[in-house]
Every structure is written in structure tokens, then in C-alpha cells.
Amino acid sequence: FKCEFYHLDCFRCTNCKKLIISQGFFRQEDGCLYCLNCHIDNGPHCMICKEPFLTGEILTQFDGKQFHNTCFLCYICQQPIEMKKFNKCLLFI
What we know:
The protein folds into two domains: 1-42, Ribbon (Cysteine Rich Protein), CATH 2.10.110.10; 44-88, Cysteine Rich Protein (Ribbon), CATH 2.10.110. Helix content is 8%, strand content 15%. The chain has one helix and four strands. The chain has one helix at 36-42, and strands at 25-27, 33-35, 59-62, 65-68. The strands form two sheets. It has a two-stranded antiparallel ribbon. The protein has a two-stranded antiparallel sheet with strand order 3-4. 12% of the residues are buried.
């Protein structure tokens, strides 16, 4: 993470252009800054609960998708998988 400097009037959300001085902001992988509302609407979301990821949250990535650790659960015991060995999908007919 590099230190960046902004004029107060330039510190704006990439999407809605509102000043983000007095509220939380998020830097997405593209390097752009987003206010909380635009981050929720446009940012990356958990594939299970569809809620956005917040700064500092621990994520699980599997098969090119992202999940909250608290959502990536074993189907049987409902405990977090935590990237231990697991089967992706079993079908019983």
C-alpha cells in the first residue's frame, strides 16, 4: 500500500463523485475509490449471501469466486470449511 495525497475537493467517489472525506471509503482492485454506498452497489460480493466485502474482512477464494469465511460452510455440519480438504459437489440419485 503506497501513500497517496489528495486535495480535499479531489477526494471523491469514482462512481457518484461525492466527497468521501467524512465517510468511509473503499479502494477496489482497480485502484479506484468508492464511497460506502457505491461500494455496496458495485463492489465485489459474496457468492452465497450476496453481501459486499468490507475492508479487513477475511475471504475465501475458490474456483474463481469469493466468499465470506462465515458463508463458506460445510453442507452437513454448517461449520466453516477454512480451505481444509473437502469435496466440491456430490450428487445422489
